Amino acid sequence: MSSIDTPVEDEYQGAAPSRRIEILFAAAALAFSAGFLALAVQIPLRRVAAPGQLDARFWPTVLGAAAVAVAVILLVIAITRPAPTREDVERIQPGGRLRMLLTIAIASIFTALWSLGSVILFGYRIEVFPIAAGLLMASLMLVYGHRRWLSLIIYSAAVTAFVYVVFGMLLRIPL
What we know:
Blueprint: E1 14-15, H1 19-40, H2 58-80, E2 86-90, H3 96-114, E3 118-121, E4 124-127, H4 128-143, H5 149-170
Antiparallel strand pairs: 1-2, 3-4
Helix pairs in contact: 1-2, 3-4, 4-5
């Protein structure tokens, strides 16, 4: 057998199995989904739905209950079974933690800006959502390695316009 035919040892190493991570993830999912369900059943109703009709609480409650059920199943599996192999999961890459922290910071800034609704500047009322959403898209694309300015601007503007037209104008959901 020549050196060309001999198999080469693969240098890729996946993340190590961790039961603790599985349990922590399942517990966090359970806490988050239980909180979501608790908030869903407290949604104020402007008018009570007629018998057989759906009200504003229905779908959030269904989704919350389903999420709690899935989280409980995940927790039971994480506790009762050995940790699964994570060969398909890459190890933490250099700069990965920084990108994660930047993503959380950018999303937090976006949420704070979005809560403003609109501002009055030089006598004009300006909606904050389209500006904040465009900046969110552009900054996240920069954080994750996109460097072409033309496509950065076009993609950010297109996604923001799509979301604004569909939700803000067609569905009349206040953004």
